[in-house]
Amino acid sequence: WQVLAIYMLLAANLSEQQALKQVCPSCDASQLCNCFSMGLDFIPHGLTAKITVLDLAHNRIQRIQSQDLQQAVNLRTLLLQSNKISSIDEDSFQSLVKLELLDLSNNSLAHLSPVWFGRLLSLQHLHLQGNSYRDLGQSSPFSSLRNLSSLHLGNPQFSVIRQGNFEGIELLHELWIDGSNLSQYEQGSLKSIKEINHMIINLRNSNIFSEIVRDLVYSVTWLEVTEIKLPVLKKSLVQNSTRPFRMQKLTFKEAFFTDQTISRAIVLLKEITSLKELEGINCALQGKGDWSMEEIALSGQSSVETVTITKVMIQNFHLFFDLNGLESQINQLKSLTIASSNVFMVPCKLARSFSSLLYLDFHDNLLVNQRLNETICKGSWPSLQTLNLSQNSLKSLEQTAKYVSRLPKLNNLDISQNNFGEIPDMCKWPKNLKYLNLSSTQIPKVTSCIPETLEVLDVSANNLKEFGLQLPFLKELYLTRNHLKALPGAAPIPNLVALSVRTNKLNGFSKEDFEYVCDSPLAVRGTQVGAVQLSLLECHRALVVSLICVLVFLLILLLVALGYKYHMVWYLRMTWAWLQAKRKPKRAPPKDVCYDAFVSYSENDSEWVENTMVRELEQACPPFRLCLHKRDFVPGKWIVDNIIDSIEKSRKTLFVLSEHFVQSEWCKYELDFSHFRLFDENNDAAILVLLEPIQGETIPKRFCKLRKIMNTKTYLEWPAAEEQQQIFWENLKGALKS
Questions:
Q1: Which of 626, 603, 629, 632 lies closest to 614, judged by CA?
Q2: Strands 412-414 and 386-388
Q3: In a shared domain, residues 197 and 110
Q4: What pLDDT sits at residue 4?
Q5: What are phi and psi of 598, to 5 degrees?
Q6: What are phi and psi of 176, to 5 degrees?
Q7: CA-CA distance, 378 to 381, in Å (whole number)?
Q8: Sign of the C-alpha dihedral, residues 200, 253, 232, 181?
Q9: Which residue positions does the secretion signal occupy (predicted)?
């Protein structure tokens, strides 16, 4: 009985594994079990200890039961997102002590149970967002998750966060909360988490913004708030505490501000002395810059060193004030980015107040040369080292260089993607300029306008046909996507370390060009050009790939033409019909034979067949039962199956031959099948009736056996004279009875 018990256990286990293989074929002999989007209503049986990754996402699973995952003890990743899970047995995850990632997002969980996660001691990543729970319960569902690194939770119905909900969590790398409809936050709820590197919260209720920030200033390094309509903050964002501030970066994404909220926020954020970076992405400002400058000035100096504003929308931005009075608040700023925000100028007085600014990025704005004179006036941006003016509307390179030369410490300038079109012979630049990006500026040549002080020059994607400048300090030169026919000479740029000349029209090398050292492909990096022997594919990869594609296309055309000429489609169809016929008995059982004859004829001969032949045979005594495709084929059934079944259920097959028959595609198919099914059996199941004389060469050559039968066996020919037609009918009836 013990042997029998073991045998039964092994047999049951084997059957479960076979069932698992049928449901998820990738689970067979693999640590990764991929059951993604397979329409499953349940977790498949047969999961074993060898599986470490189980993907059941995007199915229709509604419940997780105790035994479903019991054997998967080595599971590291369990993906159950986007199902319909509304019920989880409390001990469903009890055996998953090695689990590191659990994704239950986008399901139908109406509550969270601490028991689910009680044994998940190795869990690092937990995703619970997109369910239907309204709160996290009265206590913490995560109290046993000591190794948790990232936690995603919340949903459009999530409305309450209580004290104690996060007890047990001390350190998180990322905390993401969908609180779009959060209406109640108990003060101190998030305080229990000692350290959070990055927290993202979707928050539309502006009334609880201050309460959340007060709890987070001591624990979060980077706080990201989305979709908030910032209120006019009245209370301090800082509590009396001896703990040091931790918040260093604050991001507002898709937020809405007014002049009043901006003014108050600037004042209150100064209290968070650890804050170094402010960021706004896709935000909207309703106002004209009418900020409370006096209150802002009296509140003291800001600790923020980096401000990044991307895609801000200001209604009536042309009416925006010049921010006069803000000068005292920006003199400690080190980095400023205002991108894709319709900036067309900066007042000179304000620009002169950025006394400590090192990095300025105005890319993708509306700056023009006339306004650039005001934006970069004398004495402005005195400490600036890096300036990005790419993707603006600058037209004159000479004027741009002139205004930029007012920046004494500038060494890095990006003015790419401006449509300069022309380049002057001489330009005035900052004395310390080391990096210059002139790519995609439509310049047709390079002249002495390019400063000799450069160490890096990018003139890619222009219309250059040659490059012959003397640049003694240049180390990197980018000439990609131009029209160069020869490499630049080595002598004028003796310190060159890197040269990029992809996508040009190089057609030859000079002797000194062979002294260059290759950087790519990797296989020849560090080798002199003269010593490299590259294959045709490596040198002309695009050309070779194009030629291969053309050859493949021509080969396909050739095969199609040959197939058409030599009836390849016919042979394929015949092979298919033969394979189908081989699976069936050569003759249908007598009980399945329903008809005396299956009639194969052209639609153009239907009047004679249906009105003359059918009436004569079916009204005979005894009557014959004929199978006609118009009358007896099963509606909705594939026509090929109808033909095969009708022939097999008929004692004879009667072909009404005519010129129309030979041209009919489906008549050809009926002949094809009979070719295998009837003629190869060496019997007389086929009856040929010539409705009209047919020339031998009219019959397709591929029907060789049909041609042979017509030459060796008797066939019936429909006589034109009425006195001979009675003899025809008697002969046909005799053939059907044989």
A1: 626
A2: parallel
A3: yes
A4: 41
A5: -95, 130
A6: -120, 125
A7: 9
A8: negative
A9: 1-19
- Angstrom CA distances, 581 to 97, 462, 568, 678, 716, stand at 58, 68, 20, 11, 28
Between CA 199 and CA 189 the distance in angstroms is 14
- The helix (H) or strand (E) run that includes residue 727 is helix 722-737
Which domain CATH number covers 72?
Answer: 3.80.10.10
Please check whether residue 483 lies inside any domain of the structure.
Answer: no
Listed residues 522, 547, 579: the one ending a domain: 579
| Ranges of H-type helices in 139-198 | none
Query: Are 693 and 631 within one domain?
Result: yes
Domain match, 86 and 186 both: yes
Are residue 207 and residue 251 in the same domain, yes or no?
yes
The CA distance from 167 to 193, in Å, is 7
Q: Domain count of the chain?
A: 3
Q: How far is CA 702 from CA 463, 570, 699, in A?
A: 63, 9, 9
* 689 C-beta neighbours (distance < 10 Å), count: 21
C-alpha 365/C-alpha 451 separation (Å) is: 26
Residue whose token pair is 């053939």: 735
Predicted confidence at residue 5, as pLDDT, reads 44
pLDDT at 7: 41
Count the neighbouring beta carbons within 10 Å of the beta carbon of residue 4: 8
Domain at 669, CATH number:
3.40.50.10140
Both 277 and 237 in one domain: the answer is yes
Which pLDDT belongs to residue 14?
42
What are the structure tokens assigned to 165, written together? 């909900």
Give φ, ψ of 709 to 5 degrees: -65, -40
CA 236 to chain CA centroid, Å, is 45
**Tokens 């003060």, residue?**
187
**Cα 477 vs. chain centroid, distance in angstroms?**
35
- Give me the DSSP letters along 271-314: T-TT--EEEEES-EEES-S---HHHHHHT------EEEEES-EE
Going by DSSP bridges, is the β-strand pair 150-154/125-127 parallel, antiparallel, or unpaired? parallel
Under 8 Å between Cβ of 601 and 661: yes
User: Residue 513 corresponds to which tokens in the numbers above?
Assistant: 């060009």
Cα 517–chain centre separation: 39
Taking the C-alpha atoms of residue 661 and residue 664, their distance in angstroms, rounded to an integer, is: 5
Residue 452 lies in a domain: no
Q: How far is CA 72 from CA 38, 87, 112, 514, 713, in A?
A: 20, 20, 23, 62, 73
The whole domain housing 210 covers: 25-303
CA distances from residue 266 to 81, 256, 270, 289 in whole angstroms, order as listed = 41, 15, 7, 13
Q: Which amino acid is at 610?
A: E
DSSP at 27: G
Residue 707 sits in the same domain as residue 614: yes
Chain mean pLDDT for the chain: 85
pLDDT in tens, 252-267: 999 999 888 888 888 8
Q: Which residue type does 657 have? A: L
Cis peptide before 622 (omega within 30 of 0): yes
Q: Which helix (H) or strand (E) holds 196?
A: strand 195-203
The count of other CB atoms within 10 Å of the CB of residue 128 is: 25
**Cis amide prior to 585 (ω within 30 degrees):** no
Low-confidence ranges of the chain (pLDDT < 50): 1, 3-15, 682
- State phi, psi for 689 to the nearest 5 degrees: -120, 120
Which pTM value belongs to this model?
0.69
Answer yes or no: is 503 within a domain: no
CB 142 within 8 A of CB 193: no
Distance from CA of residue 553 to its chain's centroid?
Answer: 28
**Residues 575 and 601 grouped into a single domain:** no
Comparing C-alpha atoms, which of 428, 350, 418 is closest to residue 388?
418
How many Cα atoms sit within 13 Å of 497 on the Cβ side? 6
The SS3 of residue 515 is helix
Check if the beta carbon of residue 307 is closer than 8 Å to that of residue 278.
yes
Report yes or no on 434 lying in a domain: no
For residue 697, count CB atoms less than 10 angstroms from its CB and return exposed for 0-12, middle for 13-18, buried for 19 or more. exposed
Q: Domain boundary residue among 285, 303, 321?
A: 303
